[in-house]
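Hey, I was hoping to borrow your eyes for a little while. I'm sending you its amino acid sequence along with the backbone structure tokens. Take your time with it, there's no hurry, and the full record follows here.
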Amino acid sequence: MTKDNKIEEELDVAVDLLRRLLAVELYKSGTTMDVIAKNLHISKSKVVEMLDGVKKENGK
């Protein structure tokens, strides 16, 4: 594995983690899964997978 490939792989992991964090925060604040999927440019099934077990905030 070249140095560039390793860096690219690490960046992909970081982007995935940030995308998951953003999806969780948006969902907890009341954003629908459809809107999250559209804004993050991923499928709704991927959003459902990311948010498995996450509950929305009370009162939202």
